[in-house]
Write a structure and sequence with these properties.
The protein is an all-alpha fold. The protein has 17 helices and no strands. It is a multi-pass membrane protein.
């Protein structure tokens, strides 16, 4: 437990210490009007309090990623905790902060616009395609995972209260497949409504209730770990010391930590999906001085959630082989369901699972909303008119429903790579902004270089990419990283006239 508490303490210290350093490097301008005020439209640009925005931001960015990812990452051992802590402080929270603040400085602009402005038009076109693809994958993935968890609960309740069995009620003729289809349809209908209506009508009103469920889930699972007598790091099967954190303990041989762990644990450490969501809240922030609390702070909150579920993965099952078998038989959702029911009982476990369910749902609806806004920006379609919103939303959901028929495991692999690649580009965008205006760019350049190496090596090594032999893939990844880094410094030139984006707008 001491290792867990130390990790949480490091995350909190990261917010107060490194977060303030990042804020000073960016140089906020509290007197500069934000888009929420000078571009208010009653639909997407709506001023809201920083506490409400922080909660919405956390719910938007925290899908099943900070739960499923850390559970899968826990198979590698305690090293997963290191990536969550240091990835969150030095990469993920920095990524989210600069994405949010640059969006505020650019009239609530999305990531393709920022990429085009600071890295050039070709990168803008690439990001338009990548971001829409990522959002579509997120929307589809975040339909499947909550629908699966809700199916488990519903089927067990219908089966005469035999919670935990995952059985079928034969008398009523209800099958898990039928229940899954019903929940999938319900979630899609909610997404359509939430995507079309003004952001403060549904998202701004019911998210506080969702936040209460999220809080119960987070505290409840932590309570279960502490007070249910479950030995910490039980699945590791050894006393954990400092050296253990650097060992690969995955039960399946041949799965290297580099780069797989850094793709597996995305949300909770760093996630490009956040770059698509953060501009939504940048359009609602009332003052630049709220940026660190909203953007950097929400990422730290997600890191704490990720740490809790990583500890569940490291402790609930007696061995890592047992947890891996559970994942193979039912995806990480089975680990969530089994551990929640096992540690909190039927009632508490169901509430905890519902807390997990709301994370992907609240991320999925804003994923489709962000996709609608990206397409609208590209075609210059005003979104104040409901007919024009439908013009984009209907084809978008038709494509999403078609993509949902693809095997979930394949979707997740492509989602993982697209997610981290988007994060990498956003880090380069932030680095370019700092470099051009003679600010200390290394706070973004170093994590950008690191993530470039992760994504290029993964693409070279993984079956969804080129499937090269591991050692060759590592060399290819490092070589491409060097080329991209050199191109960054050779093609961009510092500007001596200061930062015009920081000037007060009328």
């Amino acid at each position: 437990m001491l290792w867990f508490l130390l990790c949480v303490a490091l995350l909190l210290a990261g917010y107060f210490i490194y977060g303030s350093i990042i804020e000073r490097i960016f140089k906020i301008n509290p007197s500069r009007p934000t888009p929420a005020h000078h571009m208010a439209d009653g639909v997407d640009y709506v001023p809201m309090s920083k506490k409400k925005i922080w909660l919405i931001q956390l719910l938007n960015i925290a899908g099943t990623g900070p739960i499923f990812g850390p559970i899968l990452g826990a198979l590698y051992g305690p090293v997963a905790m290191l990536w969550i802590v240091f990835g969150c402080i030095f990469a993920g929270a920095v990524h989210d902060y600069f994405c949010g603040m640059l969006s505020i400085r650019n009239k609530g602009a999305n990531i393709p616009f920022l990429a085009g402005k600071y890295l050039g038009r070709p990168v803008k076109h690439f990001m338009n395609v990548l971001a829409i693809l990522l959002l579509l994958l997120v929307g589809v993935v975040f339909v499947a995972s909550p629908a699966s968890l809700l199916t488990n609960i519903t089927a067990d309740l219908l089966n005469s209260g035999a919670v935990g069995a995952g059985a079928v009620n034969e008398e009523s003729g209800t099958s898990n497949a039928n229940i899954l289809m019903i929940w999938t349809a319900i979630i899609f209908v909610y997404y359509i409504i939430a995507t079309l209506v003004p952001i403060d009508k549904i998202i701004g009103r019911i998210y506080p209730l969702f936040g209460a469920l999220l809080l119960f889930m987070t505290v409840g699972m932590l309570f279960g770990l502490i007070f249910e007598g479950i030995p910490m790091f039980r699945s590791v099967g050894m006393d954990v010391d400092f050296a253990t954190f650097f060992q690969n303990l995955h039960p399946k041989e041949g799965l290297p930590i580099w780069p797989l762990l850094f793709i597996t644990i995305a949300c909770g450490a760093i996630s490009g999906f956040h770059a698509t969501q953060t501009p939504l809240m940048a359009r609602c922030a009332e003052n630049e001085k709220e940026g660190r609390f909203i953007f950097y702070g929400a990422m730290i909150g997600e890191g704490v959630i990720a740490l809790i579920w990583c500890m569940v993965g490291l402790s609930f099952y007696e061995t890592s082989e047992a947890m891996n078998a559970a994942i193979v038989s039912g995806t990480p959702s089975k680990v969530v369901y089994d551990s929640a029911i096992g540690m909190l009982g039927v009632f508490g476990g169901i509430l905890a699972v519902l807390g997990v369910v709301i994370l992907p749902i609240t991320s999925g609806d804003t994923a489709f909303r962000a996709a609608r806004l990206l397409i609208a920006d590209f075609f210059h379609l005003d979104q104040r008119n409901i007919a024009k919103r439908l013009m984009i939303a209907i084809p978008l959901f038709i494509v999403g429903f078609a993509v949902s028929k693809i095997d979930f495991s394949i979707l997740w692999r492509y989602f993982g790579w697209a997610n981290q690649t988007t994060a990498t580009v956003m880090l380069w965008v932030a680095a370019a902004y700092l470099y051009r205006y003679n600010k200390f760019h290394w706070v973004c350049t170093v994590p950008a270089i690191f993530m470039t190496s992760v994504c290029t090596t993964f693409l070279a090594y993984a079956p969804i990419g080129f499937g090269l032999e591991y050692q060759t893939a590592v060399y290819v990844g490092f070589a491409l990283t060097i080329v991209i880094t050199l191109a960054f410094f050779l093609m961009l030139k510092p500007i001596a006239d200061g930062d015009p984006d920081s000037e007060t707008v009328s």
